[in-house]
Amino acid sequence: MQAIQVFAEHYNYVVTIFLMMAGLYIVIARGNMIKKLIGLSIFQTSVYLLYITPAKIIGGTAPILDPAFKVYSNPLPHVLILTAIVVGVATLALGLALVVRIKEAYGTVDEDEIFAKDGEQ
Amino acid sequence: MTAISAQLPALQVVLPLLGAVLAALMRRGTPAFALTLAISWTLPFISGALLYQTLTGDPISYRLGGWEPPFGIEYRVDVLNAFVLMLVSSVGAVILPFAHRSVASEIDEDKHAWFYCMYLLCLAGLLGIAITGDAFNAFVFLEISSLATYVLIALGRDRRALLSAFQYLIVGTIGATLYVLGVGLIYLVTGTLNMHDLSTRLVEAYAVYPQPVLAGLAFIVVGVGLKLALFPMHVWLPNAYAYAPSVVSAFLAATATKVAVYLLIRFSFGVFGKAVAFPTLTVTDLIVGLSIAAMFVGAAAAVYQTDLKRMLAYSSVSQIGYITLGVGLANQAGLTGGIVHLANHAIMKAALFLALGAAVYRIGTCKLNDLSGIGRRMPLTMTAFAIAGFGLIGTPGTAGFISKWYLALGSLEVGGWPLLLAIVASSMIAVVYVGRVVEVMWFREESPHVKGASEAPLAMLLPILVLAAATVYFGFDTRATAGIATRAAEMLIGGLR
Amino acid sequence: MRFDVVIRVGTKLILPFILLFALYVQLHGDYGPGGGFQAGVIAAGMVILVALTFGIDQAKQVAPQALVQRMVPLGVLIFAGTGLVGMLYGQNFLDYSVLGPVAPSARERGILLVEAGVLVTVSGTMLSMFYAFVERGR
Predict the structure, then answer these.
(1) Which of B82, B128, B183, B371 could form a disulfide with B54 if both were Cys (CB 3.0 to 4.6 A apart)?
(2) B179 to chain A nearest CA, in Å?
(3) Is the CB of residue B24 less than 8 Å from the CB of residue B117?
(4) DSSP H helices in B57-159
(5) Would residue B403 count as lying in a domain?
(6) Per the CB < 8 Å rule, is A33 touching B165?
């Protein structure tokens, strides 16, 4: 019973840890470069969740000063993660662009095949 | 005049950023190069002025947007960052004259302006990491410089450059994400991101929540460790340096990893130092152990390389080991040695990579056997290569000796003779890989590739000679390097609990 | 390419409204959801719709490639330039309070300028990525 309660109270953190491990696993275990980038994105997403979880106050509104509201969410982590998301998108876009170039140069996006091709030289 | 001097911290980052934008707007190589040259030669003067101010007075605090710290982003310059800023901006300036011809021969015409744009963007990012006093802002700059770096590496001629850029992208992003994770944990327990503010608030937070603070430190150390290529997280480095364009290899080897080391020093001593008494933690033993492993594994791998750029890259892994050894020793002499080696290694490695770049420019290859006898064809370049190589070994009379001297003193204080022996033994391996190259370059028959090669053009030769001269100069006059590093180490050690 | 009348006429009808919506999102970004990022993507979406319906050459007449590639640094320049104005008035970098007589509304003015820069950069980036990928394999 207690275990279920702990799980429910820390649900977001459990998801964070799960996403992080899943992302890392994909990055390490998959040879396909597109899949690696997807894993990388999942890995980054887990960190976004870690920042947002404590910043969201239940019943809190956007931090715009108004006499009608007393409870506000913490805006700072949201802004930080907005920045981090932009950085993550830029990284993903650059990664995909590199994969396109790699595909043109090698004819494949699988790491093992690429290593095999470079070994022949 | 005072108005400008108050704005120097912002200008240090804004100038290269603006330059990058303007270079992209120009779209033609030569004007972009002229602009990059003008800006990168202005930057050392700015960082020099900052260094002078911090050496003679208190740390400088600059409020971005006029918002008061810890609420706004603060640029905080003390002796340590000013030293790193000076190092990065000077190396960036000295290397640049080399770039014009080298880039013209190695990169397609229509990409030249983009190359200079990325170079300045990378410089802006690196200077930003060094100058900022905000933990999250450091992440943003880290990613700016990293993204620019991936592009710069991918510009290499070989198709393997693309692959190494991709691998670096994966590893670098994981490193940066782990860093943000660590920053997030300490933000959750302290509610602040300002490094200066963090250092005092962590004391309180550590008493209440010791695990999240330690976990935050662990994530930051591992994340930064990936960026600085601490053994065994170095696997991305040899490929990245080997296939990048020559100028980029020199620039990255001299600056990118160094700034990551700065971040490690800043966090372990500056931010966490007061709360968790960094030198007493087990992580310092771990860092010392990994550093020693890096010193040996990197040097040993360097011995077996036939591609000289790859050899220098492995040697970088080994030399970074010396720097982190100083961090792990965490005493006055050791830390001084680490910080001095930051600068000395940057100077020597830049000289070595540039000398190889000149050889690539003249004969189009940097395989060991193709370079035999090149010393007689390009005597000045290869003399500089040999001098910088002796610096890597740590020969007395070169800058490398100074850093190893301090590291040896620091090791004696902590680990006694075994550590000292490790430093000397790994330097002996450096004798092998440097000596092997020097022997082939000067005493072998000329290879067919070398026939007809002549001395590098003046614009390429001058940066190499300046860096080689600096290697010797800082081996005798240590006021600028060891003097400032001692003060920085005193400040860091003094800030510990 | 087969030209479908419904799609062509529909696209022509909807194009101005997409741009208008982009400007709405842009200018209301300070009170509600929106801002330069979203508006930039919507504005770029308009050109991409032109490309999908009428072909890439038509789209390049709407937004020439040279312009698009210049828009990327230009937006950053607007952003940084806004920051520099504060510096010229003797304040710190990115201090927008010098842009008007009253500090809060002056800061809002600064944010509007910065968002305009973001709009230019984001739509430029989206379009140059789109063009880059369309050019591949042609």
Answers:
(1) B82
(2) 10
(3) yes
(4) 79-106, 112-131, 135-154
(5) yes
(6) no
Residue B375 domain-assigned (yes or no): yes
Would you write out chain C's pLDDT as a tens digit for each of its 138 residues?
A: 566 889 899 999 999 999 999 999 998 877 777 888 899 999 999 999 999 998 888 889 989 988 998 999 999 999 999 888 888 887 888 888 888 787 778 888 888 889 999 999 999 999 998 998 888 766
Q: Give the CATH number of the domain where residue A50 resides.
A: 1.10.287.3510
Domain range for B333:
280-497
Q: Is residue B224 a contact partner of residue B179, using CB atoms and an 8 Å limit? A: yes
ipTM over 0.85: yes
Residue C4 per-residue DSSP state: -
In a domain, B394, yes or no: yes
> Measured between alpha carbons, how far is A85 from B374 in angstroms, rounded to an integer?
50
Count of domains observed in chain B: 1
- CA C6 to chain B, closest CA, distance in angstroms equals 40
C89: exposed, middle or buried (C-beta count within 10 Å: 0-12, 13-18, 19+)? exposed
Nearest to B65 among C73, C76, C95 (CB): C95
The total of structural domains in chain A comes to 1
* Chains in contact with B, counting 3 or more C-beta pairs less than 8 Å apart as contact: A, C
- The pTM of the full predicted model, rounded to 2 decimals, is 0.94
Domain that holds residue A53: 2-120
Please report, for chain C, the start and end positions of each structural domain, with discontinuous segments joined by +.
5-135
Answer whether C118's CB lies under 8 Å from C71's CB: no
* B62 chain-C contacts, CB cut-off 8 A: 92
> pLDDT tens, B445-462?
888 888 878 888 898 999
Let me know if residue B320 belongs to a domain.
Answer: yes
